[in-house]
Design brief:
Blueprint: E1 4-9, H1 18-31, E2 35-43, E3 49-55, H2 57-66, E4 76-84, E5 95-97, E6 104-106, H3 111-131, E7 136-138, E8 145-147, E9 152-153, E10 160-167, E11 176-179, H4 181-184, E12 189-192, H5 193-201, E13 206-211
Antiparallel strand pairs: 1-10, 1-13, 2-3, 3-4, 4-10, 5-6, 5-9, 7-8, 11-12
Helix pairs in contact: 1-5
The chain binds zinc ion (ZN).
């Protein structure tokens, strides 16, 4: 069965600052009641530090009520400190926009140019993850070399040194999960993940997703 995951990433956090920002974000997600303190830590195959945090019991029970019975709800959040880019975004993206000339390239109407950007983006993701070097991708319209992370996309590739993956979560509208009053009991509970992460790290947050 396909697994859907959402990513909230911090594009402006440097590799050196990522461990400290990760700890601040974890504290914030714990204090809003999303996570418990348990974390499994490992180094992945490219040397990144990956931590897996369990969802807090109350949040988990409420989330269960938001999804159909046959939905395989995720029970953890994973953070990555290290060179992160979401290769699975390439299966989901429908549109890129050049940040310089603003030309749009759409999967449906500009198939050739879109396919070229997609191919270059795939190469850029591998290059960034392996070496940390940002790759430039030439715009098919204005020919300018545009850094891979600067391309606008409906589902961005999320180049970052700190990212949080929310796997198999309940409906996740731009990172906000709404738990209605009849389930929560004390009014509506809005789990606003981008705001919590942004204020904990004092850095902007981007969104991406993928389906495996
Ligand atoms: Zn352009």
């Amino acid at each position: 069965m396909a697994r859907t995951f959402h990513v909230l990433y911090l594009p402006n956090v440097s590799l050196a600052d990522a461990p400290c920002a990760e700890a601040s974000v974890f504290s914030a997600l714990r204090s809003i009641g999303l996570l418990s303190s348990r974390a499994d830590e490992r180094r992945d195959e490219v040397g990144r530090n990956v931590r897996r945090y369990a969802i807090a019991e109350t949040a988990g029970k409420l989330f269960r009520k938001l999804v159909p019975d046959d939905f395989a709800l995720g029970d953890y959040v994973e953070s990555t400190v290290g060179r992160y880019a979401n290769g699975w975004s390439l299966n989901q993206v429908e549109r890129y926009d050049c940040p310089l000339c603003k030309a749009p390239f759409q999967h449906c109407s500009d198939a050739e140019a879109f396919a070229q950007i997609l191919k270059d983006m795939q190469r850029a993701i591998v290059e960034f993850t392996d070496t940390g070097r940002p790759t430039r991708i030439h715009c098919p319209a204005c020919s300018a070399p545009v850094e891979c992370a600067d391309w606008k996309a409906d589902v961005p590739a999320a180049f970052a040194h700190l990212a949080f993956e929310f796997s198999q979560f309940p409906p996740f509208n731009s990172g906000v999960i709404s738990i209605p009053a009849e389930l929560f009991g004390y009014g509506e509970w809005l789990v606003d993940l981008p705001s919590a992460i942004q204020s904990a790290a004092a850095q902007p947050v981007g969104w991406s997703m993928g389906r495996i």
